[in-house]
Amino acid sequence: MSHHLSADHIIDLYDRHAFTWHQKRANHFTDRKWIERFGALLRPSATVLDLGCGSGQPVARYLVGIGARIVGVDSSNQMLTLCSAQFPEQQWIHADMRALALGRQFDAIIAWNSFFHLKPSDQRGMFPVFRRHAAPGALLMFTSGPSYGEALGTFEGETLYHASLNAKEYADQLRINGFEVVDHVVEDPESGGLTVWLGRLLP
């Protein structure tokens, strides 16, 4: 499958528009119910790996507020600067999630509205990354598209790339890497149409 040119310009786009994105996202929490559900499943003081953490708004903000300890990873330096200014007690790492190897495991992993910016081939490669960083019983939650293919949105007048595998392949990738599917909702009308996967690493 050939990919739209915008697939290679996501980091640059977010770097240039980081503060605008931060302001808009901080006040746009239509997906709150899923973050609340994720948080309710965490043990007290759980360690959460936030992949594609953006500016920390509103997801990391909510999780920090309920006592979770966050390690946020993003490819955008500008986004991480915003994270550090707001939550200096948490850990923020400039890295590409596709090649992540932190050498530690977490109680939970979230790749919320970030994983779906990866090309399909890169999404497949993320499941071993999830597995390496997941402690036994760890939660995993991410957003995808509803079906296989690419989808092009816009942000600040520029093309913003999204892609997805199909549901069977996501389920297979989770199973092969030791995760059970806890829930899967396609285009949830209560959360702005997001397609959500919630899994747990089998002990």
TrEMBL record:
Domain (Methyltransferase) ranges: 48-137
GO molecular function (one): methyltransferase activity
Name of the protein in question: Methyltransferase
InterPro entries for this protein: Methyltransf_25, SAM-dependent_MTases_sf
Pfam families: Methyltransf_25
GO terms under biological process: methylation
UniProt keyword Transferase, yes or no: yes
Keywords, sorted A to Z: Methyltransferase, Transferase
